[in-house]
Amino acid sequence: QVRLVESGGGLMQAGESLTVFCVGTAISSFSTSAMEWYRQAPGKQREWVASISSGGATNYAAEVKGRFTISRDDYKRTVYLQMDSLKPEDTALYYCHNVLYDYWGQGTQVTVSS
Fold first, then answer.
1. How confident is the model at residue 27 (pLDDT cuts 50, 70, 90)?
2. Cα 114 from Cα 107, distance rounded (Å)
3. Which alpha helices (DSSP H) does 40-95 contain, by range?
């Protein structure tokens, strides 16, 4: 059964760093798909955060550019989101998304206090 499982969320202080990651299971073509991170804060719509192509090209939302870094390890079928200089407004449920097959994980909660 294909699954994307996010982990690494937690309760953080503003200014701290955190890396969340997403592991894909039973996805034979993980390396050929772009991967994305989205987030959804309470009462708000899900929003795109960052993406990485199969070749490693990255893009970021303006709100996180310069603070977040997306990366991938295809051997481990894992995509990472390193988040630096966290802000309270980064508080959200973070989801990874496999673009090729439109798979979504269940999310990992990141809470940033001021």
1. confident
2. 23
3. none
Contact 18/83 with Cβ under 8 angstroms? yes
Chain segment 28-65, per-residue pLDDT in tens: 788 899 999 999 999 999 999 999 999 999 999 999 99
Q: Are 37 and 104 in contact (CB under 8 A)?
A: no
CA separation for the pair 4, 24 (Å, rounded):
5
Extract the tokens encoding 104. Answer: 């979504």
Q: How far is CA 112 from CA 9, 12, 25, 40, 101, in A?
A: 10, 5, 29, 14, 31
Residue 7 is encoded by which pair of tokens?
């982990």
Ordered DSSP codes for 1-53: --EEEEE--EEEETT--EEEEEEEES-TTGGGS-EEEEEE-TTS--EEEEEE-
Which 8-state DSSP code applies to residue 77?
A: T
3-state secondary structure of 76: coil
Q: Rounded to whole angstroms, how far apart are CA atoms 2 and 83?
A: 27
